[in-house]
Amino acid sequence: MEPFVQHLAELCVAHPTRAKWVFVPSRHIGHTLGDRLVLAGTDWANLRFVTPFEIALQMGAPFLVERGIDPSEEGLGPALMMRLLLGLPESHDYFRPLAHQPALARALWSTVTELRLAGLAPHDLKADAFESSAKHEEVKSLLAAYEGYLAANERGDRATVFTEAAKHPDWCPIQPQDCWTEFADTMWSPLERRRIDSTPGDRLTPQPSRPAGAKVPRRLPGFAAPALPGLPPKKLKASFFVAGGSEAEIEEVFRRILASGTPLDQVEICAASPASPPLVWDKCLRYEWPVTMESGIAAAMTRPGRALVAFTEWIEDDFSAGKLRKLLQSGDVRVRAFDDSLSSGQAARLLIRARAAWGRDTYRLALARLARTSRTRADRDDIAADERDSLKRRADQCDAFAAWIASIISAVPVAGADQQIDLQQLVDGAVTFIREHAATTSALDRAAAQGIARALRELEALGDFRCSLAEGLRFLSERASSVTVGADRPRPGHLHVSSMRRAGLAHRRQFFVIGLEEGRIFPASFEDPILLDKERAGISNALARASDRIDEAVFAAVSRLAAVALNDDVAMTFSYSCRDLREFRETHASWLILQWYRLASGNPAAGFRELHDHMGAPKSCVPESPDRALDSSRWWLHGVSRAGANGHAAVLGHYASLARGQMAHTTRASAQFTEFDGHVPAAGLVLDPANADRVVSPTQLEDAAACPYRYFLRRGLGVASIESGERDGDVWLNPMLRGSLLHDLYARLMRRCRGEKRGVTSPVDTDWLIAEGERALAELASEMPPPSADVRDRETEDVLEDLRLFATAETQASAAGAHPLAFEVAFGRGEPDEDEPMSRLDPITVDLGGGTTLRIAGRIDRIDQVGSGAKATFEIVDYKTGGYYAPSWLGTFAGGSRLQHALYGLAAVEILKAVHKTPTVSGATYYFSSAKGRQSRKQIAAQSVAKVTEVLSDLRGVIRDGLFVHAHQEKACSFCSYGYACGKDPHSTAHNKHDDPVLAPFLKLGSHE
Ligand code: SF4
Question: d(Cα 770, Cα 760) in Å, to the nearest integer?
Answer without folding.
Answer: 14
